[in-house]
Amino acid sequence: MSTLTSTDRALHDFAAQVGAEDPIAVEGNRTRWHLGGPLDELARLVEAPTGIVDYQPSEMVVTVRAGTTVAELHETLAAAGQTSALPDRGGTVGGAVAVGENRLDRLGRGSARDAVLQVRYVSAEGEIVTGGGPVVKNVSGFNLPKLIVGSLGTLGLIAEVVLRTNPLPPVQRWIRAERVDPRDIRDALLRPGAVLWDGTSSWALVEGHEVDVDAEVDKLATLADIADVDGPPELPPHRWFLSPQGAAHVDTMTDGAFIASIGVGTVWAEEPPQPAEPDPVAAQIAERTKRLFDPSGRLNPGRRAGA
Ligand SMILES: Cc1cc2nc3c(=O)[nH]c(=O)nc-3n(C[C@H](O)[C@H](O)[C@H](O)COP(=O)(O)OP(=O)(O)OC[C@H]3O[C@@H](n4cnc5c(N)ncnc54)[C@H](O)[C@@H]3O)c2cc1C
To answer: How much is the pTM?
Structure first.
């Protein structure tokens, strides 16, 4: 008989708790609890295991259990001058991966989907499944981590992930700019954390070493009227997804207030997005994929990823 490591034990205990029979969902910190539709009230709620399992700052990878809060993960990473692409808005690592939304500074940090190198989840049959690999260039066969990100716990219950980490920029400075095309700001800056636009004003997160940040801000001052600000503008409640080009033309698509993330394709607007006509082929593939992963429909019943 093989001896279980403490990591394996936490995962096996979680798998045993999940079992193989009844309707079930993981409860994170409920910051996006209603996304994807109401959960069937018969579903049993479980919590994912917690803790940071392994962190190699020099390799820029961290192995973390899904019930750990993003705040706790980021505190550990910050001590080594790093962070991750997961949003830190009060949720858990597993919740952030299951939801798959990006941070406001996605332009600088990269996407949540790209940050997940390996995922270990408990399947509908109660088995521990590992997909992907703990190193950056190691993907063969289907890319399971990319499928699990954003699947809202409907394909598997995430127990542990390996994430790519990012260097934490030594200086971050938010600038507001007037009378300038936001795409010119995007082009002028080497690697902005974010460029936002409300149809009139633009905001840029300029980050890096202090001398570089100062030089970049000086460059912006030649293009526009600029001022230092404390942070980004308040975001309207509804999130739209457009092509990065579409986001630059969002003013033709909504009458209400909006903030577009230039170069990313996310727009926050006062109005909810018009429901898109689902592509029938994509819907059929999604349906079949769900049935393959979860034949009895026990995982997060009632919720639909992408709904
Ligand atoms: C005020 C506010 C602002 C926010 N702003 C942003 C933002 O700007 N950018 C951004 O990207 N996000 C934002 N978020 C979202 C939030 O940070 C993440 O989506 C969050 O990390 C989800 O984690 P959670 O633990 O709260 O998940 P929960 O809300 O508890 O769960 C969400 C869904 O994921 C499922 N789930 C949870 N854990 C697992 C698991 N281990 N395995 C499988 N399924 C699981 C649940 O069953 C549920 O269906 C914001 C949230 C709030 C409250």
So the answer is: 0.90
